[in-house]
Write a structure and sequence with these properties.
- By secondary structure, the protein is mainly alpha-helical.
- The protein has one domain: Winged helix-like DNA-binding domain superfamily/Winged helix DNA-binding domain (Arc Repressor Mutant, subunit A, Orthogonal Bundle), CATH 1.10.10.10.
- It is 63% helix and 11% strand.
- It has a 3-stranded antiparallel sheet with strand order 1-3-2.
- One of its GO terms (molecular function) is DNA-binding transcription factor activity.
Length: 161
Amino acid sequence: MNKASTQAPPRWLSPAEMEAWRAYILTSRRLMELLEQALDGHDLSMADYEVLAQLSDAPERRMRMSELAQAALLSRSRLSHRMKVMEQAGLIRKEECPDDRRGAFAVMTEKGLQAIVAAAPDHVASVRRAFTDVLSPADQAVIARSFTTIQNLLKSDTCGS
């Protein structure tokens, strides 16, 4: 007996579920495009901005690479690539971890701090224009609750991927 014949039939999406899913997918993609465009004049990508934002909030503007990858939702290989590009641009530097030879720190440079300070107003304006200002406080609360639930599910990896 092959595997296909033992699997349960798929639970297709209802029209309302499909409408919600498609609205999410299309909107999230377009929103990311808009946020990327807002950073074009600053020579930063959204991934760069997120790395800099995480580092700007960290003590001494430094984080272990593994923690930064997790916080910025980047794979280690993608973070490694971003680090090379951002190091070449002078936005960050990599430091060896003195107590763990395999570990390393990402450290924001002064140029990196200046870059995020310059980009933040345009980033926040685009977030406001395309997201927060078009939603009521009640809608924002529903979105926050909904996506926190999904995020927690994904963190616990109980969705059976």
